[in-house]
Amino acid sequence: MVHQFRDWEKNRHIYAKSWKEKTGGKVVGYFCTYVPEEILYAANILPVRILGGHEPQDVTEPHIFGMFCPFCRDCLAQGLLGKYDYLDGIMIAQSCLHIRQAYTSWTKHIPVDFSYYLPMPNNVQSPHAVSYLTGELNAFKSAIEKWLGKEITNEDIRNGIKIMNESRSLMHQLYEYKKKENPPITGQETMEVAISQQLVDKKEHIQELKKLLETIKTVSDGKNTGTRLMLLGSENDDIPFVQMVESVNGSIVIEDHCIGTRYFWNNVEEADSDPVQLIAKRYVERPACPSKDWMDRSRIDHILKLAKDYDVKGAIVIQQKFCDPHELDIPAITKELNNAGIKTLFLEFDVTVPIGQFKIRVEAFLEMLQEEDLFV
Ligand code: SF4
Q1: Structural domain count of the chain
Q2: In angstroms, how far apart are the furthest CA atoms of the chain?
Q3: Is the CB of 257 inside a 6 Å radius of any atom of ligand 1?
Q4: Which residues contact 300 (CB under 8 A, 6 or more apart)?
Q5: Which atom of ligand 1 is closest in space to residue 320's alpha carbon?
């Protein structure tokens, strides 16, 4: 059902290189989901999220301390190893200091034509956040225009918004099926669809997603009968981990991390007003990364609502080792989930994860949830 998405996820670099050959267009690698892809699509640039390779590496030590999070070290390693040698540009929107260090090292040691640091405000709850970001997005648009030597019109930006909105809306439709008692799509399959959404041309992804939604309509009996789980916390694109959880009768029906729902949850309003300002509003109002979720912790209500809507019995809370934003966030979220009767399992991730050890802990967690269910 998800063969094409799986192939894109596995062969992401082959895809991007052939896209370049086919279209003659430029490819920009980006760190962090606060990057406004709408503007890149407006300029016919392919945005590709930079992700790790989940393999041991020894190339980042001269550039970044070992106490930076494994995810950002793994991303930088991919660049230093030449895996992203086809990129024309690279960019980041300010999120946490770890990933910013990966970006800075990349710009110093890996040659690209274009690099851009977008100062996405951390205080997204400030009444000035939208107007500040609107100014920064206009500066970013001008930098792209200068690089490409062509103007990006409001019409182009509206087109970029349309593409991104359609892609995000289709993901919502897919996630509706995960509310079913026995969802017709597994957590692993959903993750393959979600990751590939950040790697390939959205226009192609949209076509494939429409086909998947047509097929899934016809699947009456879901194959996912395990204990309903939520996955949340730091960045996680570790498919073998998800596969392991589902192999021991867990069913990941929803997540809150930047590979999944946080990436696509809300749309840009399609109105007649300034499209750049509308994009700014969307990024300020989207479900926040914990690096931006203050003074109020807005994430808790959002996570509790997801847990309720998707009827989860337990939550696996992941922290990439040394990830400060999530380390601060996790105690408050765990407490509220527990208060709502949702038990949690905390796991610390590294570049590679000890699947054997984690399997035993996940099995014990599922057993506890199943026993509780028997006595309700
Ligand atoms: S938020 Fe956490 S997982 Fe994400 S890049 Fe920063 S430190 Fe790493």
Answers
A1: 1
A2: 67
A3: no
A4: 332, 333, 336
A5: 3
In a domain, 309, yes or no: no
The residues facing 47 across adjacent strands are: 28
pTM of the full predicted structure?
A: 0.96
Q: What is the mean pLDDT of the chain?
A: 96
Decide: 93 and 32 in contact? Cβ < 8 Å: yes
Question: Distance (Å, rounded) from C-alpha 12 to C-alpha 83?
Answer: 10
Find out whether the beta carbon of 325 lies less than 6 Å from any atom of ligand 1. Answer: yes
Proportion of the chain above pLDDT 70, given as a percent: 99
pLDDT at 12 over 90: yes
DSSP-assigned letters across all residues of 92-137: EES--HHHHHHHHHHHHHS--SEEEEE---S-TTSTTHHHHHHHHH
The pLDDT score that the predictor gives to residue 280 is 98
CATH classification of the domain holding 82: 3.40.50.11890
99: containing domain: 22-156
Residue 68 one-letter amino acid: F
260 assigned to some structural domain: no
Any domain includes 201: no
135 within domain boundaries: yes
pLDDT for position 375 = 66
Q: Identify the residue whose C-alpha is closest to ligand 1 atom 5.
A: 99
